[in-house]
Design brief:
Elements lengths: L1 H17 L10 E3 L8 E4 L1 H7 L3 H15 L3 E7 L2 E6 L1 H11 L16 E5 L11 H19 L3 E8 L4 H13 L5 H4 L3 H25 L4 H7 L1 H14 L3 H25 L5 E4 H18 L3 E2 L5 E4 L7 E5 L7 H16 L3 E7 L3 H13 L8 E6 L2 E2 L15 H19 L7 H21 L7 E2 L2 H4 L7 H20 L16 H11 L1 H11 L2 H21 L8 H24 L9
Helix pairs in contact: 1-3, 4-19, 4-22, 5-20, 6-8, 6-10, 8-9, 8-11, 12-13, 15-16, 18-21, 18-22, 19-21, 19-22, 20-21, 21-22
Length: 596
């Protein structure tokens, strides 16, 4: 790429002109600001002191030297300490000519011997269906995995299902008390929805018991601990860990209902996993590690029998690892899961896609693993993301005030259908094709709206804003792609344009250059986004490219162009934009329709 050539040429010029040793990677090269002439800018201020010359003089001397060395440079100018290089039209045209037929443009292949990068996402609890918060988690985990793969990483996508614990017992106990044998078949409800119903039911009756105890004079905090339902749920968890056959049978039956529901939702969202772990299989390994820590003296047992890790010297506090009754906590199973994954994959990195309310948890996980003697503890990385909120505030699963993932997707599909009818974009398509199109647009709108926001930020989800054919939305980019594919098809079928031919030298107009330069930036954008674990960078790149293309499309004739060579170049440019949009949207997990 031209950027590397420029950096190398500047480094060579610094050495030959001034005797300054500078590695090419240290030369600051950036896109020239729109208000100035040029394509790439070198900041010369760092070299002024050593040369004992003015910034303008250093810029002009470097510009002249680099122009002689790099044939693609068509000119340069100096604005104070900024050296702006212009790249020749022939370079941009040859770039489009060479890449137009490359379906994987912007993507890298993993090296055969690359160590895996393990990305954990989803991690649902089996006491409730997936909701809007889970959607952000799943979409972010999937797209980060796709992004790392696009940058050449060997990625393993994994899911840890939290299938045991007090929250699971709450649903089980409520079903036993109030369910009257209700099943997914008898109720017509998805299994995860049915189990979630009884999680809410538990909370309702639990609060009633708390209120009754408080009315009798008990302190509210004590009432929460002494409420009969909570005591019975805790006893159920203890019986589960002791292997009680009756409790285990109920647990397995209700979890299977939930798994069937989860699988259906995952298919709708278009996400999948290479491996699924279950907390019920990993917490025992975690308990073994806790015992190891006790034997090593890095953990301690309190008088009530609970086990802790003292992290006060690390700026934190004491962390519970086993309850006084011997039952495990989340940290217990996460220790076991981390060791299991390390042993299975010998991973280069263990990435956990988990909301920022768990920042403390993952600080503790790394510290405890390190204290247990695992030198790979620093490979644990918490990809912390912000919460999704609604216009009317936060969601609460136990109170039933969540936006259900299945319902949201269904509503988005209805909205997509209405939008298509309003815009007349459903002509000449069969009912089956239309149904597939509505689903594609709905998922595109949902995924793009969530992924265009920087992962670290909280976000407000507004379905009405997400599904629009104008503005920074998924459907806008999907429609742009379909429009381009239509142009390319017409060029081949009606105009007889042969994309295998080479483009002859030509001059580019400003709109063409803007599109080409945006395309040229794709590999670097993928690399930067992967380094930052930020699909938002990819989303906003795709939007900017689509905007640049539409500006070019509005002002520049393509198929109506009478000059065959210019027409060939513009059709090839269209074809490459389509490739770039398809590949970037694929990183986001978004399908693009061939026609609309």
């Amino acid at each position: 790429m031209i950027e590397n050539n420029l950096q190398q040429a500047v480094a060579n010029a610094l050495k030959s002109l001034y005797g300054i040793e500078a590695a090419p990677g240290t030369v600051v090269l950036q896109a020239t600001k729109k208000e100035f002439e040029g394509d790439y800018t070198v900041v010369v201020f760092p070299y002024v002191k050593q040369t004992r010359k003015s910034p303008e003089q250093v810029g002009n001397e470097l510009g002249a030297e680099v122009s002689k060395a790099v044939a693609e440079v068509s000119g340069y100018n100096v604005i104070k300490g900024f050296l702006n290089f212009s790249v020749s039209d022939s370079y941009w045209a040859e770039f489009v000519d060479s890449k137009a037929g490359d379906a994987s443009y912007g993507l890298s292949k993993a090296l055969p011997d690359a160590k895996p990068v393990v990305v954990e996402y989803s991690s649902p609890n089996t006491n409730k269906p997936l909701h809007l918060g889970h959607i952000r988690n799943n979409l972010l985990g999937w797209s980060v995995s796709q992004l790392l793969e696009a940058n050449g990483a060997n990625v393993k996508k994994v899911n840890l299902v939290n299938d045991r614990g007090i929250h699971i017992c709450k649903s089980m106990l409520a079903w036993l008390r109030y369910g009257n044998g209700e099943t997914p078949e008898s109720s017509g409800m998805k299994g995860d929805h049915l189990v979630g119903k009884y999680y809410v039911e538990f909370d309702k009756h639990y609060k009633e018991e708390i209120n009754q105890l408080v009315a009798k004079g008990m302190d509210e905090e004590e009432a929460k601990k002494q409420a009969p339902l909570m005591l019975e749920a805790q006893q159920m968890l203890k019986r589960w860990e002791e292997g009680d056959k009756e409790i285990r049978a109920l647990w397995e039956k209700m979890n299977n209902w939930v798994y069937a529901g989860f699988d259906e939702t995952y298919r709708k969202m278009g996400v999948a996993f290479d491996k699924i772990y279950y907390e019920s299989n990993t917490y025992l390994l975690g308990k073994e590690l806790v015992q190891k820590g006790l034997d090593m003296g890095v953990l301690f047992r309190k008088e009530d029998g609970s086990v802790w890790c003292d992290l006060t010297a690390d700026g934190l506090d004491q962390k519970l690892l086993l309850r006084r009754d011997g039952t495990s906590v989340y940290m217990t199973q996460d220790l076991g899961t981390a060791l299991l994954r390390h042993n299975e994959f010998d991973a280069d990195k263990l990435i956990y896609v988990v909301g920022n309310e768990q920042d403390y948890h993952f600080k503790v996980l790394k510290l405890v693993l390190g204290k247990l003697g695992f030198d790979w503890a620093d490979k644990v990385y918490h990809l912390s993301y912000g919460m999704v909120e609604l216009p009317n505030g936060k969601m609460k699963s136990r109170e039933g005030t969540v936006v259900d993932a299945d319902d949201l997707i269904a509503e988005m599909e209805v909205t997509a259908e209405e939008m298509c009818r309003d815009h007349g974009k459903n002509d000449d398509m069969s009912p089956e094709q239309l149904k597939a199109l509505y689903h594609t647009l709905a998922l595109g709108a949902l995924k793009y709206f969530i992924l265009k926001v920087d992962p670290t930020k909280n976000m407000l989800f507004n379905p009405a804003e997400s599904i629009d054919f104008n503005g920074n939305t998924g459907p806008f980019i999907q429609y742009t792609y379909a429009r381009i594919r239509s142009i390319v098809r017409k060029a081949a079928e009606q105009e007889g344009t042969d994309l295998s031919l080479n483009v002859k030298p030509l001059e580019l107009n400003a709109k063409e250059r803007a599109v080409v330069k945006a395309l040229h930036d794709l590999p670097g954008t993928v690399a930067s986004a992967a380094d930052s674990y930020s699909p938002a960078m990819i989303a906003n790149y795709a939007y900017d490219l689509a905007k640049n293309f539409n500006s070019f499309y509005q002002d520049t004739p393509i198929l109506r162009e009478t000059d065959a060579n210019i027409r060939l170049f513009r059709v090839k440019l269209c074809a490459l934009v389509a490739v770039a949009l398809k590949n970037t949207m694929n990183i986001l997990g978004i399908d693009v329709p061939e026609r609309m």
